[in-house]
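hi!! sorry for the late reply, been swamped w classes. u asked for the two structures so here they r. pasted raw, havent cleaned anything up. first the sequence of the first protein and right below it the tokens
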Amino acid sequence: MPSVHLHVHSEYSMLDGAARVGPLVQAAAEQ
């Protein structure tokens, strides 16, 4: 299975989180 390393700030980033994990994964899968 191929993988891609992404540098994102999710809802789990203490001060920088804006994006939710589910939509990030879905957007990455669509690309």
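now the second protein. again sequence first, tokens right under
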Amino acid sequence: MMQAQEAMDANQAWDYSSEIKTILSKLGINDTTKPVNQLSGGQQKRVGLAKTLIEQPDLLLLDEPTNHLDFESINWLINYVKQYPHTVLFCNA
């Protein structure tokens, strides 16, 4: 049990759970019990964006990421991307 806890500490797993909750909250995803296929199209887009941010890919491709976001979520996303530790590429048609 001690080894598992040490591994969690070393990998900052406790922070990971907190980060997931923050991303979901800031993108306006409050009902995490509802199946994705029962969400509106805009909420599904938010879930997809949240999933991508949580995964933290080395190359973050964002195609019109502010669609379906409210003002507060857009401001949060701007600040999040400024701090993103990897490459970010925005696409806007």
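hope this helps!! also noticed smth abt the second:
The first strand starts at residue 59 and ends at 63.
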